[in-house]
Amino acid sequence: MLIPPKVFEISRCASVDVARAQLCCVRLERRHGHVEACATTGKVLAVGRWKEPDWEEYPSNGQSIQPTDGLYSFSVPIQEAKKLAKRKLKSNKPILNYLAMSEDTAITTISSTDLDTTQKTELREEYPDYPDYRGILPDSADEQASVLVNVGCLKTLCETIIKMRGLSPRQMENGDKSALIRLVFNGPEKPIALETQSTAEDDVDVTAYTMPFVANK
Asked: Whose CA is closest to 120, among 135, 107, 133?
């Protein structure tokens, strides 16, 4: 499997709760030729997908990265995933800007090379019983409405709400009612509202808006 290092940034959505050890990782999967990464805390979940280059063009360095036929999965512990996300790959050959992973079940190797030096990380499968998250995801056929929103605008609004509400990391992590917002969709050409709800007399109520993104045709 060939993986861009930035894929491992998905570890931000992995659990750090040792009581839920099977979620303290990034799950890598190959399903009938398609590759993806998943991470979840049980409260938030993110899935990343990317297109692999031709694995036969990658220098082997004695490591087989031939794709598995059918299904393959491996869980990378969160601490290792964070290190891999920071792996600096800068090569004039685009394929060398990928991490190479051997698709072995019990122990796998994730490596990178610039043709002069090679870095290798050997990992043992610690979380084979990763939950099947696909059963809870909505089917595209069930979609009621959708709209494009600029992620930078959402970031600005959420950071503003956090500051104005004086929310602590603990309140947000524990699902405190004061950290909840309501998303209100008013139509494809109307602003989308993010509304807070008062839970105490000294709360600051915030209603923030962002416009849908209209792509240039």
From this structure: 107
pLDDT at 215 over 60: no
Q: What pTM, to 2 d.p., does this model score?
A: 0.82
Q: Token pair of 210, please?
A: 């962002």
DSSP string computed for 86-99: T-----SSGGGGSE
DSSP for 31-44, written as a single string? ETTEEEEEEE-SS-
Terminal Cα-to-Cα distance of the chain (whole angstroms): 36
3-state SS class at 132: coil
Average pLDDT of the residues of the chain: 86
99 vs 55: CA distance, rounded Å: 11
Q: Which two tokens stand for residue 99?
A: 């991490």
Token readout for 144 is 């009621």
Give the domains, in start order, of the chain with CATH numbers: 2-136 (3.10.150.10), 151-210 (no CATH)
Higher pLDDT, 68 or 41: 41
CA distance 88 to 147: 35
d(CA 98, CA 113): 9
